[in-house]
Amino acid sequence: MPADWVYWLGRGNADPKLLGGKALGLDRLLRLGLPSPSGFCVTTAAYARYLDAAGLRGTIDALTSQLPALAARERLAALSTQHPFPADLHAAVADAAAALSGSDPSQPLAVRSSAAGEDAAAASYAGQHATILGVTAAGLETAIRTCWASLWSERAVAYRLSRRLGFADALMAVVVQPVLPAESAAVVFTKHPVTGAADQIVINAAQGLGEAIVSGDITPHTIILDKATLAVRDLVPGDGPSWFPDPALAHHALQTLGELAVRVEALLGAPVDLEAAYAFGQWHLLQARPITT
Questions:
Q1: Residue 232's pLDDT band (cuts 50, 70, 90)
Q2: pTM assigned to the model
């Protein structure tokens, strides 16, 4: 059984092409000693194993030549959901899931797409691929195949075509981590994503899990910090209740999030876009990528 089908984040020196953008970013965070949940990546090599086992290579080549035709895109997405894992890949993923959850089959997992080329300096694919939260071990294979299928989502295909990226290297890895019981979540930009002001940190925040912010389902609370002092420059309320019900905790969490964002930017050497969740009394980084426009 090839060792490159499953990669434990932060524990080795994997080929970036195996991990995809999101997993590569999380792997880097853990290597730098930053707070991020443990987890593993079902690599692009595992996806390739699935395609080969099902004999799908020729069909995919033929269909990608017909994109962006709707019928071709729908057929490509369906290919990733119609075939079960081969036995060796099923065993590798099941063993990793058992190790991650401590053999508790009810442990809720977050399953996130990590496409090759995603979250690079010139291409973000933000929000274009699937994320499934609350998956248990029994549903993990289906969730992984759903992430693979999202490689062919309407938005992802349109983005690839608009950037002239082609489909020859269109491969998908998948990140698997425990779901954190987040009190609040935030998306953070270490320079203003609209004005480009490098002396500001922009935070979009809401109570609970952060997927609603990323997907655009809600209008988050927006806080702008001075990067040098972390003082609040502006606050624009969003939908729903305050992102932290306790004002004292909100102030502390805001300062620690700003400090963490500045630290990540310094370590990575460029302005970054972060996703974070507040749980167990601290912030946990769920993603870090270069800011793209």
A1: very high
A2: 0.88
